């Protein structure tokens, strides 16, 4: 049974500090028992609206709103993890993160915890996992300087530039990875600015690295055919194999497959099946006429119950592991990843002579320049194939001359 949970914010007008402000307090009530917690926020008594439990000053009230949200999120998290929560447990849990962090790594820890809670709400751990990696990189960098943490006020442009250099030289990271770490660093800086720990961003002159052109990894037509011809003995692996094939023939990314429902499937007047769906990443509608093999796979799963997705896919981390195992089983040269299916779809269509405009519509690209990346892949492949042909001809000519 869900517990009763209430929050009451108030001030004690009889306890006013010499600067004329008084502390904003919070009474947490759960199942009839209550605990009192200091919010760490202060206001003048005449700025307090007792009826609404808010501060008239917008800046101070924003802090109070954030504190309320933190209490509510922590309550939901404890209830989900432990099944039971008391006012004292909630108070003690929140008290550990109550004060505003003034140091970089400490602020990162608080933000990562917030992202962890958020990841369970939206059923996506991508941002949370990437943020943890960036936090670890910051931690290693600070330790390389003999520091356990650094105050926000001590951060300079040199710090940002040195962090970039550290990632380039020590870890030999590529621009895309480095930029994600710099983004995380800037995120923490702007949180500090919002909480008035800093007045401005000391890293505003630190530039992001120029990214290399995107390299779309794809599988060949022959490898895709081999996967089609090799069913997996274990049910979950077979589901993942079919999902990979379906994505290779439709260009749907994992998240779009995960959120594919029967109402996204239609049929033309000629009886041709198609998918019409907005992509989660770009919010652009994709229109995909279905290949006959994709239609066969579709017929094996849910196309009737609108309350359930078409494919009962496992969570992202699990499917990534399973598809990699399929690649090992097939003895493919490169590690197989699920997203290769989408890249394979674009590359195969380009190779088949389908127009860039049609491919962009099927893949739900927001910008046609993204689609043109597949054309560059094909041009590179053609050049490489021609080089191989020339080498073979030269070898044959020398053999004949001998």
TrEMBL record:
Database matches in InterPro entries: Arm-DNA-bind_5, DNA_brk_join_enz, Integrase-like_cat_sf, Integrase_catalytic, Integrase_recombinase_N, SAM-like_dom, Tyrosine_recombinase_XerCD
Protein name: Tyrosine-type recombinase/integrase
Keyword DNA-binding: yes
Domain Tyr recombinase, chain residue ranges per copy: 214-387
Keywords assigned by UniProt, alphabetized: DNA recombination, DNA-binding
Entry keyword annotation includes DNA-binding: yes
Lineage: Bacteria, Pseudomonadati, Bacteroidota, Bacteroidia, Bacteroidales
Pfam families listed in its UniProt record: Arm-DNA-bind_5, Phage_int_SAM_5, Phage_integrase
Organism name: Dysgonomonas termitidis
Assigned protein family: Belongs to the 'phage' integrase family.
UniProt-listed CDD domains: INTN1_C_like
């Amino acid at each position: 049974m869900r517990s009763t949970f209430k929050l009451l914010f108030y001030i004690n007008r009889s306890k006013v500090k010499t600067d004329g402000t008084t502390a904003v307090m919070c009474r947490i009530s759960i199942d009839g028992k209550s605990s009192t917690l200091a919010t760490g926020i202060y206001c003048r008594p005449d700025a307090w609206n007792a009826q609404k439990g808010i501060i008239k000053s917008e800046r101070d009230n924003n802090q109070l709103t954030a504190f309320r949200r933190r209490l509510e999120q922590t309550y939901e998290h404890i209830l989900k993890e432990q099944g039971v929560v008391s006012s004292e447990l909630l108070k003690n849990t929140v008290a550990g993160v109550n004060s505003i962090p003034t140091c970089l790594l400490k602020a990162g820890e608080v933000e990562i915890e917030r992202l962890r809670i958020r990841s369970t709400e939206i059923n996506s751990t991508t941002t949370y996992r990437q943020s943890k990696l960036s936090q670890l990189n910051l931690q290693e960098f600070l330790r390389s300087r003999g520091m356990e943490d650094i105050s926000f006020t001590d951060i300079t442009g040199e710090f940002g530039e040195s962090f970039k250099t550290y990632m380039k030289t020590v870890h030999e990271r590529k621009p895309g990875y480095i930029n994600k770490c710099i983004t995380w660093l800037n995120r923490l800086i702007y949180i500090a600015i919002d909480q008035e720990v800093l007045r401005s961003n000391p890293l505003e002159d630190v530039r992001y690295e120029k990214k290399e052109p995107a390299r779309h990894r794809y599988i060949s037509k022959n490898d895709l055919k081999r996967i089609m011809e090799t069913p997996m003995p274990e049910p979950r692996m077979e589901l993942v194999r079919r999902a990979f094939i379906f994505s290779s023939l439709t260009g749907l990314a994992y998240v779009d497959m995960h959120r594919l429902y029967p109402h996204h499937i239609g049929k033309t007047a000629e009886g041709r099946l198609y998918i019409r769906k907005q992509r989660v990443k770009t919010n652009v509608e994709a229109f995909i006429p279905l290949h006959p093999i994709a239609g066969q796979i579709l017929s094996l799963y849910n196309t009737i119950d609108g309350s359930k997705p078409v494919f009962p896919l496992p969570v992202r981390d699990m499917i990534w592991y399973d598809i990699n195992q399929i690649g090992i089983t097939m003895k493919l040269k490169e590690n197989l990843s699920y997203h290769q299916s989408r890249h394979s779809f674009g590359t195969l269509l380009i190779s088949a002579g389908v127009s860039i405009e049609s491919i962009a519509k099927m893949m739900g690209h927001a910008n046609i320049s993204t689609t043109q990346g597949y054309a560059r892949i094909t041009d590179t492949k053609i050049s490489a194939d021609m080089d191989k042909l020339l080498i073979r001809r030269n070898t044959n000519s020398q053999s004949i001359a001998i």
